[in-house]
Design a protein that fits this description.
By secondary structure, this protein is α+β, with helices and mostly antiparallel strands. Helices cover 48% and strands 14% of the residues. The strands form 3 sheets. A 6-stranded antiparallel sheet has the order 5-10-6-7-8-9. A hairpin with a 2-residue loop joins strand 8 and strand 9. Helix 1 crosses helix 2. The radius of gyration is 29 Å and the shape is rod-shaped. The protein starts with a strand and ends with a strand.
Length: 265
């Protein structure tokens, strides 16, 4: 383990990376064992007993643990506080690497161990806030990262951005969150009236006459879904073929007149 000194925030204890690893290990072992002994630490870190003894003496001198030879090891209040800070940094970095950047689980754990020691308290706090933001924001959240494979497929394409945002709004609606669509309703027009000038739409709502019809099941006809015309109609068309969630529907023009949409392009 690296003996580089790692200083974080306003901690009064200067700890090497090695000592931080020992402190974190003691805390984690204490969660699963009644008592923690030198042999447990040596096994967990795959180091020799004399190295463990030397590290424990250093931590004891700094007031972070209570240690006497041949007795169980316990954390002081200061030691518990310090170990929780170390673990918080580690978890924040691990989550960032694995869930946000998509780094493999094994690689993320190894890299987090190396990177955590370089972060002070302010950086850790900001990283945690960022992870929580990405995880909760439907527009740039984890599902968007997965869909886009960590980059935008259509850079500088306003139409794609509009469709992406509407797709995220749909996720909010489907999740049960309350979304006020009143302003959207005021701007929407019938699919029939827009079908000759546009091919991609955001579905807004069905007319009351269609709501009870089984072919207009809310499983597919949910507000803010992206709706595509499979082919543009000619002047004499009596039906429209549309796709929602890769499922195709054929609607006649009377039905299309009762389907409210917003043009996407």
């Amino acid at each position: 383990m690296n003996d580089k000194v790692a200083t974080h925030g306003d901690s009064s204890h200067e700890l090497t990376q090695s000592l931080e690893d020992y402190l974190e290990t003691i805390y984690e072992l204490r969660q699963s064992k009644t008592v923690v002994r030198c042999s447990d630490i040596a096994d967990r870190l795959a180091v020799r007993r004399p190295s463990v003894t030397s590290a424990l003496r250093s931590l004891s001198e700094k007031g972070l643990i209570i240690y006497e030879p041949y007795t169980p090891i316990t954390l002081t209040d200061a030691g518990e506080k310090e170990s929780l800070k170390i673990i918080r940094r580690h978890k924040a970095m691990e989550i960032f690497l694995e869930r946000i950047l998509g780094v493999d689980g094994h690689e993320s754990k190894e890299s987090a161990c190396l990177l955590e020691h370089a972060m002070n308290d302010e950086v850790t706090t900001r990283l945690v806030e960022f992870v929580e933001f990405v995880d909760s924001c439907p527009r740039i959240g984890a599902s968007l990262f997965r869909r886009s494979e960590y980059h935008c497929r259509e850079k500088n394409n306003d139409q794609y951005c509009a469709m992406c945002i509407h797709g995220c709004l749909d996720e909010m609606v489907h999740s049960g969150r309350t979304v006020d669509l009143s302003s959207v309703h005021r701007e929407s027009k019938s699919l029939k009236s827009l079908s000759r000038d546009h091919e991609t739409f955001i579905f807004v709502r069905l007319g009351d006459e269609l709501l009870e019809r089984p072919e207009f099941s809310p499983t597919y006809w949910r507000p803010l879904r992206t709706l595509h015309l499979v082919e543009k109609p000619d002047e004499n068309a009596t039906h429209l073929t549309v796709a929602l969630d890769n499922k195709t529907f054929v609607v006649d023009m009377a039905e299309a007149d009762k389907i409210e949409v917003l043009p996407c392009e």
